[in-house]
User: Fold this.
Amino acid sequence: MELIAHEIDRDVMILSADGGLNSANAAAFISDVEQLIDGGLGQLIIDCDRLEYVSSYGLGVLLGLSKRMKTRGGEIKLAGLQGIVVQALHIARLDTLFQIYPDVDRARLAFRPE
Assistant:
C-alpha cells in the first residue's frame, strides 16, 4: 500500500491510501500515522478512494489508530470508501465507530467549526 500525504490546512491532513491494508504492509502504515499523531496532528482524513481491500488485521489497525488519535483529542475521518472495503467495515460494525464521508471534500467540511 502506498500512502500519499496532502496537507490541507495546518490542522487537517489527508492521507491517500492506494492498494490494500493488511498484515504485510500495516507496520509501515502504523509507523507513518503514529509519527503524524506524535507530531501533534489532530485531524486526519484517510482518502480510501483507491483502497482496494482491507483485511481484518487492517481493520484493527484503523481502529487502534482512531483510538490513539481520540486519546489525544484528535479525530480520523474516512472518505471515499468503496466496494469490499465498505462491506468489511459494515460486517465488523466499524462503520458506526468511524465518521465516513462519500468524498474528501465533505470530510474536510465536517472538520470546519460551525
